[in-house]
Design brief:
With 319 residues, the protein is α/β, with parallel strands linked by helices. It contains 9 helices and 9 strands.
């Protein structure tokens, strides 16, 4: 009997330990929590959500993977309401711990659908059957995320020529010129600025002195002189390299270095979210391939790819 009692006590202890670990890694249901997902954080008009959502996602890690396929469409800006709609559906606005969260308004849904359905179809993606506008509350209910006014957006079919890099985080870069849209087809400087600010706390940890260089090269690819052409020292590139300027992004080797040094810090700060998909190192060309005569391509959202070269920070770069 004594042995049986000891065994039962051990089982109870294991169950208690498992419960504590589970509670430590799972957000308490029904409580407001800060939005962590990069696609939405700082890019919509509220910063806290309440889970589970309508789709049964109980954690932001689950929401992250559900939102992932829609991220490219939010970046290309087919609608001023698509990001609000998608984030609102998966990360509804918290209206207090004791009340139901606010989902997007019916009108928010309709505006996003009208503007983006065609663009999605062109990429062999259909408007989800789960996104039924009629099931959402109208804006006059005052219990939903209201729509934004739609603006006329310029369609960016190819990279812009060299232009001054005005991103706030990139004013100390050794290369002051860049080009947009970037490899994710983002072209709105104010939106890119807001997304980059998510990573300021990560830079503040000092995990890597090269993180700023990496971020700036990802969000606004550098426009630099052809290394094979001689230029006078101190001469600023005032004219585009060509009418079809290639992306000049950070090299894969730099990406891998940043990931190795900063991933643990990022997971701590984001409450366990995976390293952002935009920073997956297989997206970037390798420095080792720079002398390869075969032109490399880097995947671009919504397209087959663009010819790219990559660059590492200058030897004297201090971050």
């Amino acid at each position: 009997m004594a042995g049986g009692g000891s065994c039962q006590l051990m089982i109870v202890q294991v169950l208690v330990t498992t419960l504590l670990v589970s509670r430590a890694t799972t957000t308490e249901s029904g409580k407001c929590e800060e939005i962590q997902i990069p696609m939405c954080r700082g890019l919509i008009k509220y910063n806290s959500t309440k889970l589970p959502n309508k789709f049964g996602h109980a954690t932001q890690s689950q929401v992250y993977w559900a939102l992932q396929p829609w991220w490219p469409f939010a970046d290309t800006g087919c609608s001023d309401n698509l990001r609000n709609f998608l984030c609102g559906m998966y990360l509804p606005r918290c209206a207090g711990d004791e009340t139901e969260p606010h989902y997007p308004c019916r009108e928010t849904c309709k505006k996003a659908k009208i503007r983006c359905k065609k663009a999605m179809k062109e990429q062999n993606t259909n408007w989800s059957e789960q996104f039924k506008c009629i099931q959402l509350l109208p804006k006059d209910s005052h219990r939903c995320v209201k729509p934004e006014r739609e603006t006329k957006k310029k369609q960016n079919k190819s990279n812009a020529l060299c232009q001054s890099n005005k991103l706030a985080m990139c004013q100390t870069m050794p290369y002051p010129l860049g080009s947009l849209p970037n490899m994710f087809l983002q072209a709105d400087v104010s939106e890119i600025d807001a997304e980059m600010q998510q990573f300021q706390p990560l830079m503040d940890t000092g995990c890597s002195k090269k993180l700023r260089f990496f971020l700036c090269g990802v969000y606004m690819p550098f426009c630099i002189p052809d290394p094979h052409k001689k230029t006078k020292p101190g001469t600023e590139l005032k004219k585009p390299l060509s009418n079809k300027l290639p992306l000049v992004v950070p090299c894969r080797e730099l990406c891998q270095e940043i990931f190795a040094k900063c991933n643990d810090e990022y997971q701590l700060m984001s409450q366990g979210l995976p390293w952002p998909a935009k920073f997956h190192c297989n997206r970037f060309p390798s420095y080792l391939d720079q002398n390869n005569k075969t032109a490399k391509k880097v995947p671009r959202e919504g397209g087959e790819g663009s010819r790219v070269t990559c660059i590492m920070p200058p030897p004297d770069y201090q971050g």
